[in-house]
Amino acid sequence: MAFMHVDLYSDGSSRGNPGRGGYGTVLHYVDSVGQLHVLELSQGYRSTTNNRMEIMGVVAGLEALKQPCEVHVVSDSQYVINAFNKNWIRGWKARGWRTASKEPVKNVDLWKRLLAAMEPHQVSFSWVHGHRGHPENERCDALATSAADGGGLIEDDGFEG
């Protein structure tokens, strides 16, 4: 079965950590005739952390997909990228959502939501250096900061800050 390929770019932001925050996500899909389709997503939150917004940006992008896809996630968050590329998440799950030092893993609600959102897809992860001129990363950053600074902020229900 051939999967549609989607590039998912994402960034998170918070004004204070914790503080007002937001995520920005850009999805790119090139159809069979070479036409680029772009979907931009963002949302601001009253009180959250940067790491939560980094995860939430990927979650929102994956949850927006309507069919199983091959998804390449690009983020400037080493926290998100390393959770998968360095298999941190496998260890956390094996230890009952505890770190190697036996501390509770932070943001478990979002990690579980991310894993559920990944289920129907084939997902790979790449890190990009933030704030270095990568066009999609810069766009995601603008979306995330605009969402954090804008109106229509919602509650981050899982945030326990």
Structure explained in plain terms:
There is one protein chain. The protein has 161 residues and is of the alpha/beta class. The protein has one domain: 2-Layer Sandwich (Nucleotidyltransferase, domain 5). 35% of the residues lie in helices and 32% in strands. It has a five-stranded mixed beta sheet. A hairpin with a 2-residue loop joins strand 1 and strand 2. Helix 1 packs parallel to helix 4. The longest helix is centred in the middle third of the chain and has 15 residues. The chain is globular and about 50 Å long.
> Tally of extended strands?
5
Shape: globular
- Give the name of the CATH superfamily: Ribonuclease H-like superfamily/Ribonuclease H
- Please report the first level of CATH classification, the CATH class: Alpha Beta
The tally of helices reads 5
| Helix-strand topology string | EEEHEHHHEH
Number of separate structural domains: 1
Low-confidence stretches: none
Strand order, sheet with most strands: 3-2-1-4-5
> How much helix is in the residues?
25-40%
What does the average pLDDT come to?
Answer: 96
According to CATH, what is the topology? Nucleotidyltransferase, domain 5
Biggest sheet statistics:
5 strands, mixed
How many angstroms does the end-to-end distance come to? 44 Å
Name of the CATH architecture: 2-Layer Sandwich
For the CA atoms, what is the radius of gyration?
15 Å
